[in-house]
Amino acid sequence: MVPIGGQTGLVDGTVFDEPHVAISTERLRSLTEPDVLNARIRVGAGLTIGEVHASCPNGWTFAVDFGARESATVGGAIATNAGGLRVMRHGTMRRNVVGVEAVLADGSIVDDMRGLDKDNTGYDITQLMAGSEGTLAIITAAQLKLVPAPKNLCTALLSFASRDDAISALPPLQARLPDIEVAELMLREGLDLVSTHLRRTNPLPPDGNAGLLIEVPGFPETLAAASEELPGLIDAAVASSLSDRRNLFAWRESHTEAIKAQGSSIKLDLSLPRSMIGSTLDAVDRLVAAEEGATAITYGHLGDSSLHVSILGVPDESAPHLESLVLELVAAVGGSLSAEHGIGRKRASQLSLRRSQTEISIMKAVKAGLDEHGLLNPGVIFSI
Ligand SMILES: Cc1cc2nc3c(=O)[nH]c(=O)nc-3n(C[C@H](O)[C@H](O)[C@H](O)COP(=O)(O)OP(=O)(O)OC[C@H]3O[C@@H](n4cnc5c(N)ncnc54)[C@H](O)[C@@H]3O)c2cc1C
């Protein structure tokens, strides 16, 4: 049985060559009146993240947001513990889901929709479902947390002379603006691709090599004061209207399509200790440079130290070797080979690069306890 949401997943969690029963949550579209007093919204697993946003009452919002919002479902986002643009301030789905209803492999229903912030009565079933990738149960509904919608968001693209300048700018900015919601890194090579794709001029000045898309509650003057004297800062474009804001976000969110338009690539979704980002990316660049004709396009959520690295121009026969070299490098510095997309079937054979045998045994024991015949999403997380 393969649970299917919006099928936006990037690690083959819903793609299965063997005969299987696909179970779609498309019709699980219940939506109750948002409960402002408790700051909760109860939704069917088949609603999209965009529909949840649109259902939030005035003054409130749902904090999880990412590019696939109009197709990705609540069930899929919980099952993959989706993160996205605002993780640095609000956490991933784990921090924003406070209850689930789910159907187990034997058909029994678990109703953990109580929704309390604190409830230390044994194991947390809702949290167990977050990131379980359809291997433990089919999520049918969820209780999600609402957060106050920020007022006067200031959105800006800060341009830096180098990637390292942009990376080093984040800690001082955060110290001065503790409420930063978004800090997305984009580099010249990626913005060049997006610029061709969108037919717009690259937003970086000629001497700029890295951009930080920042969004923070407050006014442009606050951001300007906080950015003063950041080493390597050479320009700042501040959105003065909703359409400006959309345009700035489009630079970041169009990376996926612009890269896809280049043909096949090695797609990596890495999480790194912040202190290791610069040196690890340098090492990745060296590995990529050794492969003739290959280019790495790096971008992503600097705010929570997770970055997407897409390597273009690598012949199919050498791609697995180069991918392994990069993943081993990331593991060696304490990073993760899956920051946010999960393991799926695509990365099941690489799980031990990040998790110890003891951890994998615990996960398998949980799986066997809830699904003794291995009916739910076989081959996902653990190779068959
Ligand atoms: C353009 C783009 C941008 C993205 N950006 C981000 C980002 O910034 N941050 C981030 O974290 N992720 C990002 N993602 C990944 C995204 O979070 C996931 O693809 C999405 O959350 C999965 O939701 P879905 O409904 O499409 O699930 P599907 O793709 O249908 O399924 C994904 C997995 O969840 C399981 N599943 C689905 N529904 C259920 C259910 N009801 N119960 C149990 N298991 C279920 C499936 O079996 C599968 O294993 C992005 C994806 C795209 C395409």
General description of the model:
The protein has 384 residues and is an alpha+beta fold. The protein contains 13 helices and 15 strands. Strands 12-9-11-10-14-15-13 form a seven-stranded antiparallel β-sheet, sandwiched between helices. Strands 3-7-5-6 form a four-stranded antiparallel β-sheet. The chain has a two-stranded parallel ribbon with strand order 1-2. Bound molecules: flavin-adenine dinucleotide. Flavin-adenine dinucleotide (FAD) binds next to β1, α2 and β7.
Key features?
single chain, 384 residues, alpha+beta, 7-stranded antiparallel β-sheet, 13 helices, globular
Q: What's the arrangement of strands in the largest beta sheet?
A: 12-9-11-10-14-15-13
Q: Whole-number average pLDDT?
A: 97
Ends distance: 14 Å
- What is the oligomer described by this structure? single chain
Largest sheet: 7 strands, antiparallel
Q: What share of residues is helical? A: 25-40%
Query: What percent strand?
Result: 15-25%
SS-derived structural category:
alpha+beta
Query: In total, how many beta strands?
Result: 15
Bound molecules: flavin-adenine dinucleotide
SSE string: EEEHEHHHEEHEEEHEHEHEHHEHEEHH
- Low-confidence stretches are none
Structural Rg: 21 Å
- Count of DSSP-assigned helices: 13
Shape: globular
